[in-house]
Amino acid sequence: MIILGIDPGIAIVGWGVIEYKGNRFRTLGYGSIQTPKTRTTSERLADIYDALSEIIDRYRPEQIAVEELFWNTNVTTGIRVAEARGVILLCAQQKGLVMQEYTPMQVKQAVVGYGKAEKKQVIAMVTMMLGLPKPPKPDDTADALAIAVCHAHSAGSALAQYYNKP
After folding, report:
1. Would the pLDDT of 161 be above 90?
2. Quick check: 30 and 144 in contact, CB under 8 A?
3. Which one from 19, 43, 139, 140 is the annotated catalytic residue?
4. What is the pLDDT of residue 150?
5. Active-site entry in 67, 83, 101, 118
6. Burial letters for 10-47: b for 16+ Cβ neighbours within 10 Å, e otherwise?
7. In which domain, by residue range, is 108 found?
8. Which of 1, 62, 88, 140 stands the most exposed, by the fewest C-beta atoms within 10 Å?
9. CATH number of the domain residue 6 falls in
10. DSSP E strands: which ranges in the chain?
11. Does residue 140 have an active-site annotation?
């Protein structure tokens, strides 16, 4: 199963593509979509849609896992992230991907074993679990890979059924 993990944002969208087969991970690609502040919100949203569409076309994931929105104290930033998240969900839907959403606590629990783990612990575990030569940068990319790993672990029984089809 090829899974695309997404950490939504307006300035930076982290993404990571992994293959999960036989309880083993293989990293296919990862990075970030970055939009400059000098562009309008609508231009930035279009940039995110276009870049994500290219990533989906390149890696052909079967499923997508997206982090649920975490509201911070800055409502304006939260609204912009929600807009970007909406564009991400739309792109996934239009590409026909099976989609699942996870809270930050669920991702930390699946990757580190503790729902209140610190970001550096998540990054260290993702780096180790995926056999990466160095921690992925920016942190949003590591988060996206963690979301993909979380989905692989959480969807284990569904994935087993997928691979055991006659």
Report:
1. no
2. yes
3. 140
4. 95
5. 67
6. bbbbbbbbbbbeeeebebbebbbbbbeeeeeeeebbeb
7. 2-163
8. 62
9. 3.30.420.10
10. 2-7, 12-21, 24-34, 63-67, 98-102
11. yes
Q: Which two tokens stand for residue 11?
A: 């300035």
Q: Tell me what pLDDT residue 57 has.
A: 98
Reduce the DSSP state of residue 84 to 3 states and report it: helix
pLDDT tens readout for residues 60-82: 999 999 998 766 656 667 788 88
Catalytically annotated residue among 7, 54, 68, 101: 7
Ordered alpha helix ranges (H), 60-112: 75-94, 104-112
Q: Is 78 exposed, middle or buried (0-12, 13-18, 19+ CB in 10 A)?
A: middle
Q: What is the mean pLDDT of the chain?
A: 89
Work out how many domains the chain is built from and give that number: 1
So what's the pLDDT on residue 70? Answer: 67
Number of residues written out for the chain: 166
Q: How many separate helices (H) and strands (E) can be counted in the chain?
A: 6, 5
67 part of the active site = yes
pLDDT in tens, 79-98: 888 899 999 999 999 999 98
